[in-house]
């Protein structure tokens, strides 16, 4: 059975509100979700599931979206739209840069990238899911999902679906601390015993079993769920 990146799962104090923000930003629609939560998706890119979590956000997320722009005006329009929907500017120490760092209504970071970024050319509006992670975890997810490596230099890695679209990138060391439960994680569909064993052989660690799912961690210790049922 082939594994599929079914959704990014996002902890939210107000799942419906946060889903509405991202649906408007990305042009997504509400989708029926057999696994619970509030799910949105579109014709391309990642589904997003928002699940209730009342614990406050206390640290920067270990992954964030890089949204692309076709022109300076387009970049400015994306920023203005995010602010009108309830987003805000963030200062994370980025200094004087050409991209714009924003937070959604619950403070989840994302970047609006300046036009002309060659690495994200052709990737669509969600150019990348930029992640803090090691080279080993990039190799792990390339093999787990069957996505080819499209970047592997200086311990920085990136993978992309064979059909194209959004890249997933990992910045290499030094890694940020992995303290507590991350607010954004992967839900992977395709659960069966051979796939679970294969992921463990690739470097995953088994954490727990639930009804129709298994929770594991990747080689960097990031938890993810392997789900049974349809893609």
Write the layout of secondary structure elements.
Elements: E1 4-12, H1 15-26, E2 29-31, E3 38-41, E4 48-52, E5 63-67, H2 72-84, E6 88-89, E7 100-103, E8 109-112, E9 126-131, H3 135-145, E10 149-153, E11 156-160, E12 167-170, E13 184-189, H4 193-202, E14 205-210, E15 213-217, E16 223-227
Parallel strand pairs: 1-4, 5-8, 9-12, 13-16
Antiparallel strand pairs: 1-13, 2-3, 3-4, 5-9, 6-7, 7-8, 10-11, 11-12, 14-15, 15-16
Pfam families: Glyoxalase_6 (PF18029)
Protein name: VOC family protein
Domain Glyoxalase-like: 8-113, 132-226
What is this structure, in a nutshell?
The chain is an alpha+beta fold and 231 residues long. The protein contains 4 helices and 16 strands.
Your description of this structure?
With 231 residues, the chain is of the alpha+beta class. It has one domain (4-170): 2,3-Dihydroxybiphenyl 1,2-Dioxygenase, domain 1 (Roll), CATH 3.10.180.10. It is built from four helices and 16 strands. It has helices at residues 15-26, 72-84, 135-145, 193-202, and strands spanning 4-12, 29-31, 38-41, 48-52, 63-67, 88-89, 100-103, 109-112, 126-131, 149-153, 156-160, 167-170, 184-189, 205-210, 213-217, 223-227. The strands form two sheets. The protein has an eight-stranded mixed beta sheet with strand order 2-3-4-1-13-16-15-14. An eight-stranded mixed beta sheet has the order 6-7-8-5-9-12-11-10, with helices on one face. The protein is globular. The model has no long low-confidence stretch (mean pLDDT 95).
């Amino acid at each position: 059975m082939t594994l599929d990146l079914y959704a990014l799962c996002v902890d939210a104090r107000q799942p419906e509100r946060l889903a509405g923000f991202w649906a408007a930003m990305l042009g997504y629609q509400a989708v029926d979700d057999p696994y619970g939560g509030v799910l949105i998706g579109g014709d391309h890119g990642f589904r997003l599931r928002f699940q209730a979590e009342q614990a406050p956000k206390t640290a920067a997320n270990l992954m964030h979206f890089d949204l692309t722009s076709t022109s300076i005006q387009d970049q400015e329009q994306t920023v203005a739209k995010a602010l009108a929907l309830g987003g805000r500017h963030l200062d994370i120490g980025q200094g004087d840069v050409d991209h714009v760092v924003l937070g959604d209504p619950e403070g989840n970071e994302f970047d609006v990238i300046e036009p002309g970024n060659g690495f994200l050319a052709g990737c669509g509006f969600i150019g990348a899911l930029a992640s803090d992670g090691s080279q080993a975890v990039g190799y792990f997810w390339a093999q787990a999902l069957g996505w080819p490596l499209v970047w592997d230099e200086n311990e920085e890695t990136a993978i992309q679906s064979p059909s194209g679209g959004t890249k997933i990138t990992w910045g290499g060391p030094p890694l940020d601390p992995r303290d507590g439960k991350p607010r954004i994680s992967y839900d992977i569909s395709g659960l069966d015993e051979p796939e679970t064993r294969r992921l463990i052989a690739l470097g995953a660690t088994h954490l727990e079993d639930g009804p129709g799912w298994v929770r594991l961690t990747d080689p960097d210790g990031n938890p993810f769920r392997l789900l049974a049922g349809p893609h």
